[in-house]
């Protein structure tokens, strides 16, 4: 990944200020427009002749009254703020309401499908002559951008980043006004996608002689104990005169230390003319490189610098890793020459409480949950990911299958693909490019076209990045269409196909691009269609497989590289297996909050490296005395003995990649599993019958966070009985009070049928748990969170309190707010 060289850094180049990348997230104003009535779209008839004259868009000029607009910070998803609506009609030609979580978006809901954002900002007089661009990491979905009365441009993809050069329309030494109209009436996918500016926005200032956008690359090739680096970049001259150009590269290790002998340069014999660009390349070597791996994600940085007549004109840092990744048709996947199974999950990009506007720290939290269960890879389904997700994978050691949204060789489709590959080709975590997902027509009735489209996309990937293989997620037998162009073959579901394909095509490497689709509701141990609940033992949809079925298949075939389970997290929309009142899927190995379901521990046992033991269900089945209850254990140890109130229910050998289970007549008390290896007791785990909830416990993923207005703490809310034991059936309703230097930005509980507000200050527990997300202000201090009983007729519930310290840090460079929030 490439990032601007931060001004003031120890590695900054002092001759002139290097490129500035300023965060433009704080202090926006927001209001709803209207998707079908111009008279109600911004309340003055937007769209009725506005495009007749350049510079006539008054809402993006001084004097426009936005005093009644709401003030907010980005990222922002207005869809998660909307109420749930039971409407099974289609919101456009393809999307039923339920697919998008029963949120009122689309042509049927024009009042809530268009949003307007407005921001004032200053540009210094000294910036005249520089190139200044606004950069959006992602906006959902159709976007119009206006600055200082001028229409700047549009973007219609909800996931692709885009940017506009504003240099000619800015007022230097004065106030400027940017307005963004976002229309979420149409969608890119068939799942919850949010609405609004849900990723970061930046204002980038560079010299007229500057590096091209995402044009810098480092391609390591490991040869023995040496990494040979192929370096490249593009320099663009947007100045008024010809410029002599020298490009220099320096390599730094993870601690910022310049490597011995580091330094290489390329120059042009003739000056670079105005409006001309040129590619510059060089080579370097790293002796005894520290390799990037899932266990040791070592990273390097290359500093790329442009000089003209000895003066520094632009610079950026490119983060990269040294590693090899090989898909072998007969031996599976190898990372740095070592055999490793891809233990992956597919994931959408939303989370409880915040929708699609996921704070950076929450990206790390989500990956941490998947790492804890033994996951070593993620698939970005089904769209280009946010850069913070990729960066977290690079730094955490999580491999990635990076997927574009639209399988198309049209100019639009190739532009999206090119942006993805160029932006992320330096990221060592990415081991596969994916050009699409389940394009049934291009595999079947349009197979001839599919093969051509895929060939063009694969060819473009190889041109931009010759170091990686290209694949796609194919729900078919892979014998025609798109599959003919792929380097590596991905199978979605259908365990009946891979063996035959491998026998027929022994020279093609294979993996599971999408597998499982097991379904379950956290903490439920009986399937109840009347309540839209699925048992947490062994639920599966007709096209899918249980965790044990798919992993036994992929984990025992040497030639299989591994696979990606659908899904790591539950996600909004596409409610499966039930519709209303379900508002999210139940495919996740963890729920919407990241709370583990029992299957999480199956993966932890067989994907993890440490001894593992998990006993379920809980032992709170009041009213079911004498009923037979299935008792399961997931473990990677050899043998398990189960005890019921101290009496042995027998021992069982643990099958490889399987589980053990008993049928036990319920009686209050406890069950206990004792797991052994080689005849020696290694782990024990107990489930006790608890009393009713008597108190609440608050814990946080971190108790010290950054006072930067961006960082978040994720709080776990648990119900406890009077003995201090977790109550796995509690459903108490709680109110949350947040004070001090922080704000409440979201709540959740993982219940797929819960329609309480994600943005409210109250939330019911679901099977004993809830989640609260708080965000810091930009002032150091303390965030105080209190949980109290709310609207519940049961016994008194002792409140809980927790304090989060917000520490002073150097803030990311950002565009200052020009007016008080009021």
Question: Describe it for me?
Answer:
The chain has 822 residues and is mainly beta. It is built from eight helices and 48 strands. Strands 23-24-25-26-27-28-29-32 form an eight-stranded parallel beta barrel, surrounded by four helices. A six-stranded antiparallel beta sheet has the order 4-3-5-10-7-8, with no helix packed on it. Strand 28 (488-492), helix 6 (498-504) and strand 29 form a beta-alpha-beta unit. The radius of gyration is 28 Å and the shape is globular.
Short description:
Helices cover 10% and strands 36% of the residues. By secondary structure, it is mainly beta. The longest helix is centred in the middle third of the chain and has 18 residues, at 447-464.
Defining traits:
6-stranded antiparallel β-sheet, globular, mainly beta, 822 residues, disordered N terminus, 8 helices, 48 strands, 8-stranded parallel barrel
What are the SSEs and their pairings?
Elements: E1 2-4, E2 20-23, E3 28-32, E4 70-72, E5 114-123, E6 131-136, E7 142-147, E8 150-155, E9 162-165, E10 174-183, E11 201-206, E12 209-211, E13 217-223, E14 226-237, E15 246-252, E16 264-267, E17 276-287, E18 300-308, E19 311-320, E20 325-328, E21 332-335, E22 338-339, E23 342-347, H1 360-372, E24 377-380, H2 387-396, E25 399-403, H3 411-424, E26 430-437, H4 440-443, H5 447-464, E27 469-474, E28 488-492, H6 498-504, E29 509-516, E30 518-519, E31 539-540, H7 547-555, E32 560-566, H8 599-607, E33 613-616, E34 628-635, E35 639-644, E36 647-653, E37 660-665, E38 670-677, E39 680-688, E40 695-700, E41 704-706, E42 712-720, E43 733-740, E44 742-748, E45 762-764, E46 769-776, E47 781-789, E48 800-807
Parallel strand pairs: 23-24, 23-32, 24-25, 25-26, 26-27, 27-28, 28-29, 29-32, 41-48
Antiparallel strand pairs: 1-19, 2-11, 3-4, 3-5, 5-10, 6-9, 6-11, 7-8, 7-10, 12-14, 13-14, 14-17, 15-16, 15-18, 18-19, 20-21, 21-22, 30-31, 33-34, 34-37, 35-36, 35-38, 38-39, 40-42, 42-46, 43-45, 43-47, 44-46, 47-48
Helix pairs in contact: 1-2, 3-5
């Amino acid at each position: 990944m490439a990032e601007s060289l931060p001004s003031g850094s120890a590695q900054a180049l002092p001759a002139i200020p290097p490129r500035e990348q300023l965060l433009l997230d704080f202090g926006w104003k927001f209001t709803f427009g209207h998707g079908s009535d111009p008279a109600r779209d911004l309340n003055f008839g937007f769209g009725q002749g506005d495009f007749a004259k350049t510079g006539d868009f008054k809402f993006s000029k001084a004097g426009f009254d936005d005093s009644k607009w709401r003030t907010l910070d980005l990222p922002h998803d207005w869809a998660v703020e909307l109420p749930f609506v039971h409407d099974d009609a289609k919101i456009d030609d393809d999307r039923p309401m339920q697919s998008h979580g029963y949120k009122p978006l689309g042509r049927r809901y024009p009042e809530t499908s268009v949003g307007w954002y407005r921001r004032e900002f200053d540009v210094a007089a000294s910036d005249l002559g520089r190139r200044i661009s606004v950069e959006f990491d992602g906006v959902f979905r159709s976007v119009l951008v206006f600055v200082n009365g001028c229409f700047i441009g549009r973007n219609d993809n909800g996931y692709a980043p885009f940017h506009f050069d504003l240099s000619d329309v800015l007022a230097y030494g004065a106030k400027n006004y940017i307005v963004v109209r976002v229309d979420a009436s149409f969608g890119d996918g068939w799942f919850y996608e949010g609405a609004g500016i849900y990723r970061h926005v930046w204002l980038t200032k560079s010299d007229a002689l500057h590096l091209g956008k995402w044009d810098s690359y480092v391609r390591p090739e490991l040869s023995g104990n040496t990494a040979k680096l192929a370096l490249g970049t593009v320099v663009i001259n947007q100045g008024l005169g010809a410029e002599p150009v020298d490009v220099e590269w320096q390599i730094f290790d993870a601690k910022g230390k310049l490597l011995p002998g580091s330094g290489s340069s390329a120059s042009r014999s003739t000056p670079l003319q105005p409006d001309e660009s040129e590619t510059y390349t060089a080579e370097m070597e790293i002796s005894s490189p520290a390799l990037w791996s899932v266990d040791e994600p070592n990273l390097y940085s290359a500093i790329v610098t442009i000089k003209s007549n000895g003066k520094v004109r632009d610079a950026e840092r490119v983060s990269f890793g040294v590693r090899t990744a090989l898909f072998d048709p007969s031996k599976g996947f190898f990372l740095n020459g070592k055999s490793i199974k891809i233990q992956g999950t597919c994931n959408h990009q939303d989370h409880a409480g915040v929708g699609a506007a996921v704070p950076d720290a929450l990206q790390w939290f989500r990956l941490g949950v998947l790492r804890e269960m033994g996951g070593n890879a993620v698939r970005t389904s089904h769209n280009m990911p946010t850069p913070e997700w990729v960066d977290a994978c690079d730094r955490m050691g999580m491999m990635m299958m990076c997927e574009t949204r639209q399988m198309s060789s049209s100019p639009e489709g190739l532009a999206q693909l090119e942006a993805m590959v160029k932006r992320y080709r330096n990221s060592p975590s990415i081991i596969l490019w994916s050009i699409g997902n389940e394009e049934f027509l291009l595999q079947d009735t349009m197979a001839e076209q599919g093969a051509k489209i895929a060939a063009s996309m694969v060819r473009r990937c190889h041109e931009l990045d010759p170091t990686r293989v290209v694949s796609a997620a194919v729900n078919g037998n892979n014998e025609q269409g798109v599959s003919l162009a792929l380097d590596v073959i991905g199978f979605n579901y259908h365990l009946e196909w891979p063996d035959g394909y491998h026998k027929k095509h022994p020279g093609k490497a294979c993996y599971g691009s999408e597998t499982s689709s097991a379904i379950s509701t956290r903490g439920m141990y009986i399937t109840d269609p009347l309540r839209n609940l699925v048992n947490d033992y062994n639920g599966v949809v007709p096209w899918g497989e249980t965790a044990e079925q798919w992993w036994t298949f992929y984990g025992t075939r040497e030639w299989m590289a591994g696979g990606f389970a659908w899904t790591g997290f539950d996600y909004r929309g596409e409610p499966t297996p039930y519709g209303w009142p379900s508002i999210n899927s139940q495919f996740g190995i963890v729920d919407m909050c990241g709370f583990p379901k029992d299957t999480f521990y199956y993966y932890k046992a067989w994907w993890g490296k440490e001894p593992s033991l998990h006993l379920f269900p809980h032992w709170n089945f009041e009213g079911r005395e004498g009923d037979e209850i299935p008792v399961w254990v997931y473990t990677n140890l050899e043998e398990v003995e189960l005890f019921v109130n101290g009496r042995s229910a027998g021992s069982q050998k643990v099958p490889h990649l399987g589980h053990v289970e008993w049928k036990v007549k319920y009686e209050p008390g406890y069950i206990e599993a004792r797991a052994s290896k080689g005849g020696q007791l290694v782990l024990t785990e107990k489930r006790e019958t608890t009393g009713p909830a008597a108190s609440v416990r608050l814990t946080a993923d971190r108790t010290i966070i950054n006072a930067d207005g961006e960082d978040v703490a994720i709080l776990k809310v648990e119900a406890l009985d009077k003995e201090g034991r977790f109550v796995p059936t509690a459903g108490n309703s709680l109110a949350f009070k947040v004070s001090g230097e922080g704000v409440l930005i979201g709540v959740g509980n993982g219940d797929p049928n819960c329609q309480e507000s994600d943005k409210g200050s109250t939330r019911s527990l679901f099977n004993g748990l809830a989640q609260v997300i708080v965000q810091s202000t930009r002032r150091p201090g303390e965030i105080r969170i209190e949980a109290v009983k709310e609207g519940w007729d049961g016994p008194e519930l002792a409140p809980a309190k927790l304090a989060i310290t917000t520490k002073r840090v150097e803030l990311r460079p950002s565009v200052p707010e020009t007016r008080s929030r009021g």
